[in-house]
Amino acid sequence: MKRLAILVTLIAVFGMLATMGAFAAPAAEKVLTIGVDQEAIGLDPHVVTAFSSMRRIDLMYNRLVRLDDNFVVVPDLAASWQIPDNLTYIFNLRKGVKFHNGRELTADDVKYSLERVLDPKTASPGRSYISLVTAITVVDKYTVKLTLSAPLASLLDGLTSNNLSIVAKEVVEANTNLQKVECGTGPFMLKEWVADNSMTLVKNPDYFEKGAPAVDKVIFRVIPEQASLYAGIKSGDLDMATINDGAIIRQAAKDPKVVVMSKPGLNERIFSFNCTKKPFDDVRVRQAIASVLDRAEILTIAEFGMGKPTGPIPVAATAWALPLSKLPFAAPDLAKAKKLLADAGLPNGFSFKITCSSTYEGGLAVAQVAQSELAKIGIKAELEVVEWGVYIDKWVKRDFETMIELRGGSGEPDRFLYRTFHSTGGVNNFLFKNADLDKLLDQGRNLTVPAERKAVYDKVQALLIEQAPAVFLYCPNENHVLSPSVKGFKQVGNGSLYYLTTATK
After folding, report:
1. pTM of the model
2. What are the pLDDT digits (tens) for 428-437?
C-alpha cells in the first residue's frame, strides 16, 4: 500500500508539472532564410564597397546615425546630437551598448573608428564623407565631438554610411582587418560563413533596441540564378529573396502565393570609363558613346522597365536631380555620335572591352544591350564577362577599359558625387580629373543654404554629363519577394536590409 501511495503521489506531481509546462517542448527557433545572388566580398565595413557585403554588415554593425525607410537621419549609436555651430557636431552616445565580444562601447571606439576611416592607409571609400573633420575629441565616456575645417552640409547623411560603422580596436589589431571576422554592436552576430554557400547570423541578446531582433537567426544563402531564388520562395526553402530580374518580378507579382515589394531606388546603373585609357582619354569619344546609349531601351530590355532613367543625381532625389530634358547628351543622337568619333580621328569606329559579370550588380544584361547599340556607329564592344570576385578586384585596381556598374546613390548630392567624381574621391574609379568640377564639388559641400547649393549642383550635373566620365543610365527599383508569413520587413530603397531586424514569421 505504501508503494502504491508513493506511485500515486508521483503521478500527481508529474501531472501537475506537465500542466505547468515544465516538460513542454522548447519554443521553436525563429529563423529567416534569405536568398541572395552574390557572395559577400569581405566584411570590413571601413573598406568594402560591394552591396553583397553591405547587406550583411548592416545587420552586424551600427553607425552614429542611420537612415530610416523614408531616408530620414535617425539615432543609432548616438541617442542625440547637437550642432552648436556649423563646424562643430557633438554626439551623445547610448549607454550600455555592448560589442559582440561583451565589451561596452565608448566614445574612444568612435574616435578610433573614424580615425581609421580617415587614415589614408585604410583606403576607406567612406573617407570623403568626413574628410573635413580635423579633430575627433572624446569629451567624456559617452560624448564625442567632431570639429570641421569648413561647413559640410552632408555630414549627418554621410555618417549613416556603413563605411563609417563603429568597430572594436582590439579585434582589428588581432586580425589585421575585419574581412573575415566581425565584432560590431549590431542586432546580429556572425556564427558561420561557408564561402559561396551560406552565412549564418544569430541574434545579439544584448542589442540595445528593445524587442529586436524579432528572430533568432538569419541565414543568407547564395543562389546565383534569379529563377532559383523565386523557386525557393515558392517551395518554402527561402523566406525572402532579393530578385532583380524584371521578368521574374512581373511573374511573381501575379502569384498569390508570394508577396512582392518594389520601391524606387537611389542606386544608379552607369556605364563607366577608365579616363586614362585610350581612346577614352578623349572626351569626344566618351561623348560619342553617351550619344548612342539609349536609356529607355536599356531599361526596357535589361530591367523590363522596372526603374527610371536618370542623370548624375538619382532621379528619386527630386529636390536636386535635374530632369534629363535639361541636360546635354540625354537623348540618343547617332549623327552627333558619328561626328564626334570623326572629330576624334576614329571615323570607322574602334574596338574595346566592357567588363561585366553575370551577377546583377555586374550588369551583363546591360552590357549586352549596350554592345548592340554601339554597333550602330561601328564600335565593336567585346564583353569581358568575369566572375564576381574578379569583377570587384578589377574595379578596385582600376583594371578595365569600360565597366557596367551599380553605384550606391544617395538623396544627398555631396555624399554621392564628391566621393565618386572629385579627383580625390575614394571611389573615383574613372581616374577622372577636372579642376572645374573639383571647385564646384568643394563649393557645394561647404554651402549650407539649400537654394545656393541647388544652383551649384545644377552646374555639377551639366558638367558631368558634358565631360562624361560615365554615362548615367537609370535607377533600378529595389525588389524583394517574400513568403506571406514574413511580417515587419520594410524596404529602405538603397539596398539596405536593416529592417530584417524587425521582421518575423
Report:
1. 0.83
2. 999 999 999 9
